[in-house]
Amino acid sequence: MSKSSNGSTRLPRKRFYRARAHSNPLSDSHFPIPISPSDVDYSHHFPHFFPSEECDHENGDKQPKKVRFADIGCGFGGLLVSLSPLFPDTLMIGMELRDKVTEYVKERILALRASNPGQYENISVVRTNSMKYIPNYFEKAQLSKMFFLFPDPHFKEKNHRRRVISIQLLDEYAYVMEIGGIIYTITDVEELGEWMRSCLEDHPLFEAVPVEELEADPVVKLLTSATEEGKKVARNEGETFRAVYRRIMLNED
Ligand SMILES: C[S@@+](CC[C@H](N)C(=O)[O-])C[C@H]1O[C@@H](n2cnc3c(N)ncnc32)[C@H](O)[C@@H]1O
After folding, report:
1. pTM, two decimal places
2. pLDDT tens-digit profile of 171-217?
């Protein structure tokens, strides 16, 4: 985090965090992996919400607050930054595979916290491969929202297994989502949009959120306006393909 000449905290500049355009989500990278969700030290991510071991947590009991929103492949963190003031008491985390991009998001959040005291305390980021480690971070039914905004398209058929939405991965997402929780997906690649919609449509634990509900949901407006990729698509007047689905209950839940 750097200071400008007038002493205020400067936001990090993307050009100092150059990263490869893509990382292979199927290769093994070297970063710490928690053994289970209880192994993740969230006090480190959200110090404002975990004041100290001894004092009561802000919800009045000894239960620490849990992360409720996850932005998968968060890129440069635009969605988290926009969601933060809308849900100031909700903890949210971005998951990002590229290390330099993750570093950028960390610095961005620290700079925003420093220049806006008391704000942006509810957002953080981890470097991880969400295709492999979602259950290492979240317990059953922990999340109320998951976001998949402009994920990498992996056009070639042999690379479809690298896509972050698939029937198999939806099993994992269904496990970590509460009943009624919502998955938001959007892309500017029509074929990927159809793929994500058909995976969600075919999965027995998800159902489409009706249009009237989407119109009333303030989060939906952010899907095209908050993230760096979304802004790029909007500037180029590109078409987008959205699929928003709710986690539903089956008898065995
Ligand atoms: C095209 S970018 C979109 C970023 C952001 N969601 C946006 O809309 O601006 C896709 C991002 O997902 C990340 N990513 C791809 N596969 C991932 C994985 N398996 N786990 C975590 N992040 C991943 C990439 O590194 C990249 O930053």
Report:
1. 0.89
2. 999 999 999 999 999 999 999 999 999 999 999 999 999 999 999 99
Domains annotated on the chain, with CATH:
38-247 (3.40.50.150)
Q: 140-177, pLDDT tens digit by residue?
A: 999 999 999 999 999 999 889 999 999 999 999 999 99
Kindly provide the b/e burial profile for residues 114-145, where b requires at least 16 CB atoms within 10 angstroms of the residue's own CB: eeeeeebbbbbbbbbbbbbbbeebbeebbbbb
Inter-residue contact 89 to 157 (CB < 8 Å): no
The rounded distance, in Å, linking the Cα atoms of 249 and 115 is 43
Query: Does any ligand 1 atom lie closer than 6 A to the CB of residue 98?
Result: yes
Q: Would the CB of 126 count as within 6 Å of ligand 1?
A: no
Q: What is the set of active-site residues?
A: 152
Question: Candidates 138, 147, 164, 188: which one to mutate for ligand 1, based on the most atoms within 8 Å of Cβ?
Answer: 164
The contacts of residue 105 (CB under 8 Å, 6+ apart) are 74, 76, 77, 80, 94, 96, 125
Contact between 98 and 19 (Cβ < 8 Å) = yes
Q: Name the residue at shortest CA distance from atom 11 of ligand 1.
A: 73
151 lines ligand 1 (CB under 6 A): yes
Contact 188 CB / ligand 1 (< 6 Å): no
b or e along 197-220 (b: 16 or more beta carbons within 10 Å of the residue's beta carbon)?
Answer: bebbeebebbeebeeeebeeeebb
Indicate which atom in ligand 1 lies nearest the CA of residue 98.
Answer: 25
Please state the rounded mean pLDDT for residues 89-115: 96
